Amino acid sequence: MWTRSELKARAREILNLNYWKAVLVSLIYMFLTGGGGGGGGSASAGNNSSGSGSASFGDAASSLSSGEIAGVIFAVVLMIAIFFIIFALAFAFSLFVLTPLQVGCHRFFIRCEHGNASLNDVVFAYSGCYLNVVKTMFFYSLYLTLWTLLFIIPGIIKGLEYRMIPYILAENPTISTKEAFALSKQMMDGEKWNAFVLDWSFFGWNLLSVFTCCILAIFYVAPYQNLTNAQLYAVLKNKVSGYQQQAGNPYVNNYNSNPYQQ
Fold first, then answer.
1. Residues in Cβ contact with 165 at an 8 Å cutoff, skipping those fewer than 6 apart
2. Which of 82, 116, 164, 239 has a Cα-to-Cα distance from 43 of 20 to 30 A?
3. For residues 194, 199, 200 and 202, what is the CA-based torsion angle, rounded to 10 degrees?
4. Which residue, 88, 85, 132, 123, is CA-closest to 247?
């Protein structure tokens, strides 16, 4: 059994031992995941102008020749095509370049506990396991997006169920996609609410970070939270019977003890 206070206390101990490296990797992770930002809608035009706007559009359309209309249609189609090309390039860059780095950051935070974390862990996925990591993370993102589009609440629940997949890949990069999803589901079984509450327990820290222009987040809150989440993974993987055997490959670290077991 684990508690939030135990996870956080252990994370603080690990942070003290790996402070500057943890800060640097957390900063990288923030850039990779877009660690901030939000958006809002713009106001629409008032009702009083809608009639005149419609009339003006009709007058403008009637004054165009067929050649000019064709030119406008071509310009619109070209803009849409450019948009989709840019979107496809951005998606490919995120999937094939940024996603393996995210998994590498998770590997760093896992290994911090045992004092063998290295900045090289961030790029470890660009090895023979690269394509498997990319494939599994693609399906991870795809399924999560589809569930979120269905409804917000199912998206949140599935996000919690899939939560351990990046950590599983970080430690077991050759594991199959099906096994990674199954293991994450096993780990999060009965733990979703506790993990949700754990995330919200950092709300005050994140609020303070906003007031310090993210300086507090960079130098304390982000590494603290990342290491806490890595500790959650370390605890939950021990509840899965035969985890090391299921995920068996030379990348797996065999832990001899679990400080949270009673």
1. 136, 137, 140, 180, 181, 184
2. 82
3. 130
4. 132
Task: Give Cβ neighbours of residue 178 (< 8 Å, ≥ 6 apart).
Answer: none
The encoded tokens of residue 25 equal 């990797």
In terms of C-beta distances under 8 Å and separation of at least 24 residues, what long-range contacts does 37-41 make, across chains too?
none
Question: pTM for this structure?
Answer: 0.80
Please calculate the CA angle 140-223-28 and round it to the nearest 5 degrees: 60
Residues ≥6 apart with Cβ < 8 Å to 100: 123, 125, 126, 130, 133, 134, 137
Buried b / exposed e over 10-20, threshold 16 CB at 10 Å, is: bbeebbeebee
Phi, psi of 42 (to 5 degrees): -95, 155
Residue-wise pLDDT for 48-57, tens only, equals 444 454 445 4
> Among all chains, which residue has been given the structure tokens 């670290």?
253
Please report, for the chain, the start and end positions of each structural domain, with discontinuous segments joined by +.
Answer: 4-33+65-246
Q: Dump pLDDT digits (tens) for 157-196.
A: 999 999 999 999 999 999 999 999 999 999 999 999 999 9
pLDDT computed for residue 56 by the predictor = 52
Q: Which residue has the tokens 């293991």?
A: 183
